[in-house]
Amino acid sequence: MEKLRAFLKRKNIVISAKRYGVDALGAMAQGLFCSLLIGTIVGTLGSQLGIEAFVTVGAYAKNTAVVGAAMAAAIGWALQCPPLVLFSLIAVGAATNELGGAGGPLAVLIITVIAAELGKAVSKETKIDILVTPFVTIFSGCMLAAWCAPTIGAAASSVGRLIMWATDLQPFFMGILVSVLVGIALTLPISSAAICAALGLTGLAGGAAVAGCCAQMVGFAVMSFRENKWGGLISQGLGTSMLQMGNIVRNPRIWIPPTLASAITGPIATCVFKMQMNGAPVSSGMGTCGLVGQIGVYTGWFEPSEAALANGAAAIAPTAFDWLGLILICFVLPGVLSWAFGLILRRIGWIREGDLTLDQ
Known about the structure:
Layout (H helix, E strand, L loop, with lengths): L1 H9 L6 H33 L2 H10 L2 H15 L4 H18 L3 H19 L6 H38 L4 H17 L4 H8 L3 H21 L1 H13 L7 H6 L5 H17 L19 H11 L3 H5 L9 H28 L13
């Protein structure tokens, strides 16, 4: 046992919740942002403004293989992998994300960690390291991906089936469940956008999903402003609340305020403002990321997507009430409610100073 401990220490293999649940998970969120999310933002801007270069760049950035590679490289960096292991993880991430489907990010996290540690274990142990290390890392990672990534993806997709079940309920309960579930999926290392796209989530359910995602993104951005200032406000409010996953692992109570906010804004969206998201279904799972969710609602008013039309949607002329609902549900209420709930939790000691600080 002592020899094993000495070996793991020499190889910088630290088996701990912090290394995998905080460091690797936090880095993976940044990799996802630097590929899928920024690609979606740029692509959406390009399509709305008619800038073909933006559309092209966005398509490259959000390519499934690129997204997987970016996440895997970020995880490898967080695990302090040697160069040959780090570079080999690119192939592992690309394969895993493609095979994992909607659960691609979660599959990438699990499989990349295993492949990285195996690669580190053999790194520089032979005279032909240039061959052995990449082979072990890539072969083990890709074989694991072929074996279990689809299963992990199916498990993540079960979240989508739960959401679809929720859409059959009355608008009030559906609004709560869809808003909370999709919002949670947005912050977790699974792709809420992919789930919504696979389900063709539009209409009132799409509106509730947008509400839940906005509650998480705007909520975390506002309630953590004292720790992260303007940079954190922008990176979370227009980027992704997944950046807080490392902090959530450290203190799960920080997740309470935005989740409660989503439980309130969801039914308000479905029952009061009857806000529908009839743009591309992927927009239902994007929230305020590059304002893609809001652009989806806007375009759905005038030109519903094919998926929305198939579900019975029709173009409308938005009223001032519709605009008010969009602004309140997506920006004002998430910020105010999460800030208020967060303040209560700070005062009772459930959230401490620094619990929401993002790693720079």
